[in-house]
Amino acid sequence: MEENATTNSAEMTEKTKFCKHCGGKIPEAAVICKHCGCQVEEMKQVEQPSIVINNSNNNSNVNTNTNANGRGGIVYYGRI
Predict the structure, then answer these.
(1) What's the rounded Cα separation, in Å, for the pair 69 and 76?
(2) How many CB atoms lie within 10 A of CB 25?
């Protein structure tokens, strides 16, 4: 009997509201009903921080082709 009295007093101190879809009793801060799963309140939007990408990379890639004998250019094998 004492356990039941403790449960009732805990329920009474928690602020509750009713789901507008199923009528179930849910906590006042609930956004989604735990009984039917419907959204009962608008979800709070968290402000996203502004992201600034500052890429000051001024490098340029220059490829120099060298063949097996160390000279630049294209090496052809076979007939031209």
Answers:
(1) 13
(2) 13
